[in-house]
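Entry type: protein chain
Record version: 2
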Amino acid sequence: MRRRPTLAGYTLLEILLVLLLVGVLVSVSLVSFRLTDRKRRLEAPMSQLQELARRARQTAVQKQVPYDIVLEKGGYSVGPRRYALREGQELWWKPWRQQQWRQAESYRWTFQPSGFCEPLSVRLQEGQAWVETGFHPLTAGVREERMEIP
């Protein structure tokens, strides 16, 4: 008796299952990429502000003159140099032990020749996502940092 040759291949159900799995993996990757991109867009200007605060304190101590970072609507500045935020990002600040955030509109954050600065928290917000940094009054370093990215 002769056997019939079998045809090798995949069933329609197997092909659809593979396509479904590929679609799920691509969807998960895109969501992850969006969160990472939003996080990076918020962290970059905040990291830059953290470095500026450290350098402002260092400069005030070395030159023995007060040194200011000005928190403004749309960015912040040190002397003639202005750092602009991306469109849709807002800068907020809050003095130590206060609950209410204030929108940055030409607020002078002064670093004294003694090395002290006002203990301050700064929030960078883009839509519902935000990152907050609390600065230490003695070191101008990061005291605490929080982030929410929905």
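Comment: The chain is about 35% helix and 35% strand.
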